[in-house]
Design goal:
The protein is about 45% helix and about 0% strand. The protein is mostly helical. The longest helix has 13 residues.
Amino acid sequence: MQTLHAYPLPKNRWARYDIARHPDMQKRIAQELAVAGLLQVQGQPPARELEWPDLTTASPYFNAVLKESMRLNPVAATGTVR
């Protein structure tokens, strides 16, 4: 997915994994991106170029999914190791 390039690579992997595990989430994200014109759909005009504001305004559910994935899978350690 193009949108995930805006996030750091480790976060990107977890987000893709989380989305891949939930087909219902995939469908809702696809619908949201299609409505915003960011997803190529057969019989529709070509998808437009992704822009930074699209992450927050055109796709609020997708943005929430990415943020939740980052919350559940932090890159930094959550405690001290001795």
